[in-house]
Write a structure and sequence with these properties.
The protein is α/β, with parallel strands linked by helices. It is 33% helix and 21% strand. It has 16 helices and 20 strands. The longest helix has 13 residues, at 98-110. 33% of the residues are buried.
Length: 456
Amino acid sequence: MVSADNLNIDVLELIFSFLSGNDLHSVALVSHSFYDGVLPRLYRTLRYTMRHGKKFPRPCSPFTAILNARNLAKFVHHVDICYVPSLTMQGTKQQYDPHFLKDCRNVLGLCQNLVSFTCIWNVLPSLLPGLEGLESIQDLRVYASELKPVQVESLLKIQNLHTVFLDHSSWAVMDVLPRWTQSLSATLNSLTLYNCLELNETVFGRALENLPNLLSLHVVGCPRIDYVTLFRLLSRTPLLENLSFTTFESSKALEPAPSLQYLRQLCIDTRYSVVASPVPTMLGDIFNHLKGSVSTLSSFKIRISEPQVVAGPTVIDHIVASHAYTLKRLAFINCNMKLESLTSICKSCVNLERLDVCIPNFKDPLTQARFIDALSRSRSLRILVDTDDHTAHGAHFVLRQADVEKIMKDVPQLTTVVSDNKRWTRRLNSGKKVTASMERIKTRSRTPTLWFTSTE
């Protein structure tokens, strides 16, 4: 007689790969064979978050468990450190728990099958020795603001990377970036430089020279690299598919646009200090500049630094005129939009599948009716995401089930609405009436994802 306990271990591993969270712990307690089958999934990712650090009075981490059973290290493929417990404050500097850092460093040295490493806390100098010599690692995301020249040499020993994400990197890291990219030229597909204040045109240009096969480039929050400089250097990455950058005020003139025929996703982060918003003019210059060199843009995101700014008709006209027939995803973050502009988008973008926009307050029936009418002009929209972060003072509007069902009823193609960490999914009851089922989106156990790299 065949029972679940008698199944081949490979079959059990495949079945348990669909489980997560507490389900994995429960399965491990069923039997010895279930325990063996769930181990690869249970220890595949080691993640330490603030919830772990605040929940237990003493640092109790998954790294300690691995050190107590070192044979489990072979199952670890991903390490995400989203929080580091601290002891005390020494003046203005925080002192992190040395025992936690030591355990983490020792475990990294044991994980010979490690594929990705993420550390968004400023403790990289303590953990770097554990990463040396790991040939399997492919994805690296680190906060590197305090790396010194000697420590940077250890960073250069990490080879065969496919993805590099450098957050708040020190001048020493930027100084060796050309050397590092030269050694990674055969494997690196994605490079993200986030809030790197020391990055300059010379270093950036030399780094891009080594990456002709780069597919994704994100240069966000780097004040010395304006969009004029960026476009001039993009001729060195002709295969680029994803591009993100920050626009600052610039008096430079745009040079002839490089060929970006493979570009699919464009993300623009706008920052400025002048009173009058230069966003419409700047966007017009960028889209006119890219006209002819980018023909198949499928995703466009824009984030405006001032929440009160409205994405007016001028901005929308530039988007629609250039890419109305190819866009499948549009996102407007931290900005409002006039309903006339929303109507224009839904009518013109015939292949639009997902729209991220601030949903207005439905307490006004007229506003609700006009918003839904604008959405109903689209025959392809399937996903609607509310980008309102509710940072304004006072009570904020909460989307109710009745509101969602009204939207889905009048927009027949719409299947999903996301708002306030809730996902509403279209359903049909026994009477063929449209209803919406709600599930909460769990975010506590995730590694924070920046808006320009998010694919959700």
